[in-house]
Write a structure and sequence with these properties.
8-stranded mixed barrel; alpha/beta; 3 domains; Alpha-Beta Plaits; disordered N terminus; Beta-Lactamase; 5-stranded antiparallel sheet; TIM Barrel
């Protein structure tokens, strides 16, 4: 007679969270070589140990509050996961092999145990304990294949690239021949993954791999290096121009639409080219220089290829140094906010200021935004820098208003990255609450090029912020593409005429005509106008004659420090001309 199996819940529970682990388990949790993940009853992650980070690449703060489903590799079907749920619903431990995805997109095998933690007949937590078993399977024939090939595309991987490149270099040396490395990157691939999902991103990588193979000769080799990067080795070419022809053929092949899930998708790629022996005699140097050339191709625009030049290393080093110094500047409070007065033209009264960032480098002195903002935008550092500028400007303006009894507004520029971030409204709301500044005393400036990148999203974001009472200005108006049909829908308060038109309006009839037209357009839309770059009394008089509302420029004041601007308010609240 077989004894009936009982599913008796364990009598106690384990509580693990980000900040505390009960003493009996703390040592095991933080020092275990296995990855440990703890969720609540709703499968929301409440703790992850250091080995989880080591194996997956995700920091604990990246995963808290999420469900473990983001780790899925898409290798298992729903039936597999249904089987796991069946076991766990019986208060039993599930154990088995599973393939999951690391943060860098690589999929790998794990031996996983999931233990339900039960108290008083209810599952309150789940503990997942796993080991990366890639190494244990390395002697298996299948795993030997995986060690040298990319499991998604079937292409040889970086490890085999080193072997193949070393062999081809030795061959080229003996023959006194030329060989070539192409380094290819898919532009904006992360956005595709984030927007459309890993499944579609994986399918795109497979299709790109197929086109690369069809664009090269049988003797050439295509490799996937990881994420959205590929390398192509061109063996025994006759002259450097042959590499250019292949690069152009690849660009042309990838420019054609990719049809996935009955939808057409267009992507672009950037290619860097390095040649043996001119650009390097060792595989590390050739690969590095090809990557450097690829990064230069990215800078020059979409669907581009570039041959390596030694000057590129100097540019790359300078860019890397500047990025490091930017991070250091943010940490060491080296940034400053300067303020340029905005003048009400009919009264010559200072009614507000534009906040402009400066970098107070300890050795180089004051560095202007044109020198570092593009890199900050590219690296994502513009987000913490931009938030700091917004907080500083709002706090400072609130202090000035309280000291002077006035109601000045402050204008703050938003970059493209800032404007597109999902947390924008929440961040601005928090800044206003913390500073005490009225929403009607904050004016956010975006360029028309930012606004027209995604007009529907722009309109929704502007309306959401407008509900808070915040003001808006379109900056550098007239220098980019805009749609008047959308412009009249945007809830803007101000149009700023770009200084390039103001500076030349006395000399060139076309520029003065543009200034006149913008002023008339703004007034017909019931918004006011600020003319930037005003430097002469003649410009002031002309703008006043055309009923321009507000001006700013060196004629009144350069951007000045916080103390100097406050002194300007105290000494000359009204400026006479």
């Amino acid at each position: 007679m077989t004894e009936e199996r009982r599913h008796t819940p364990p009598p106690s529970k384990l509580t693990v969270n980000r900040h505390s682990v009960i003493p009996d388990y703390k040592t095991v949790f933080f020092n275990s070589s296995e990855g440990i993940l703890v969720t609540d009853s709703n499968r929301k992650i409440i703790a992850a140990n250091p080995s989880f980070t080591r194996i997956t690449g995700y920091q604990e703060q990246d995963v808290l509050g999420k469900t473990p489903s983001f780790l899925k590799s898409q290798r298992h079907d729903q039936q597999f996961f249904d089987g796991v749920e069946t076991v766990l619903s019986k208060y039993e431990k599930w154990q088995g092999e599973i393939w999951n995805r690391r943060k860098n997109g690589e999929i790998h095998p794990q031996w996983l145990s999931i233990i339900p933690v039960v108290n008083n007949g209810r599952t309150e937590q789940f503990i997942g304990i796993f080991t990366d078993i890639s190494g244990f399977l390395s002697n298996n024939a299948v795993m030997r294949s995986h060690a040298y090939s990319d499991s998604l595309t079937g292409l040889p991987n970086r490890m085999l690239l080193y072997d193949r490149l070393t062999f081809m270099l030795n061959l080229a040396r003996r023959r006194n021949g030329i060989m070539c490395v192409l380094y290819l990157d898919i532009n904006r691939f992360k956005m595709i993954n984030d927007t459309l999902g890993y499944s579609l991103g994986d399918q795109l990588l497979q299709n790109v791999a197929a086109r690369l193979k069809s664009s090269t000769r049988e003797v050439d080799s295509v490799f996937r290096l990881g994420d959205d990067e590929f390398a192509i080795l061109l063996e025994d070419i006759d002259k450097p121009q042959d590499a250019s022809r292949v690069a152009k053929r690849i660009l042309s092949a990838c420019a054609k639409p990719f049809v996935m899930k009955e939808q057409e998708m267009y992507v672009t790629v950037s290619i860097g080219v390095s040649l043996y022996p001119n650009d390097g005699e060792h595989f590390e140097q050739l690969l590095k220089n090809a990557e450097t050339a690829m990064l230069r191709a990215k800078e020059l625009g979409i669907s581009n290829y570039q041959h390596y030049k030694p000057s590129m290393n100097t540019q790359a080093y300078e860019s890397l140094t500047l990025e490091y110094n930017l991070q250091k500047a943010l940490k060491n409070n080296q940034f400053r906010v300067y303020y340029q007065p905005i003048i009400q033209l009919n009264t010559n009264e200072i009614i507000g200021a534009e906040a402009l960032i400066r970098w107070g480098h300890p050795e180089l002195g004051i560095i202007t935004p044109a020198q570092f903002v593009p890199l900050a935008e590219e690296t994502g550092l513009i987000l913490p820098i931009g938030e700091w500028v917004l907080e500083t400007a709002c706090e400072t303006m609130q202090q000035w208003n309280m000291k002077t009894g006035r109601s000045l507004f402050v204008s703050v520029n938003l970059s493209a990255r800032q404007f597109q971030q999902p947390e924008l409204v929440a961040n601005i709301t928090r800044v206003l609450e913390r500073s005490g500044l009225s929403p009607s005393q904050l004016k956010l400036e975006i360029t028309e090029s930012i606004g027209m990148k995604n007009p529907v999203q722009t309109l929704n974001t502007l309306r959401e912020l407008k509900e808070l009472g915040i003001l808006f200005a379109i900056d550098d108006f007239g220098t980019g593409y805009s749609s008047l049909s959308y412009l009249k829908q945007f809830p803007i308060d101000t149009i700023k005429i770009d200084k390039s038109f103001v500076m030349e309006m006395e000399a060139y009839t076309n520029d003065s005509a543009i200034v006149d037209a913008v002023i008339a357009l703004a007034h017909s839309l019931n918004v006011d106008v600020i003319a930037e770059g005003v430097e002469t009394a003649d410009q002031v008089n002309y703008l006043r004659s055309k009923s321009c509302d507000k001006v700013q420029g060196f004629y009144y004041s350069r951007p000045v420090s916080t103390d100097d601007f406050y002194q300007l308010l105290a000494d000359t609240p009204w400026i006479t001309t």
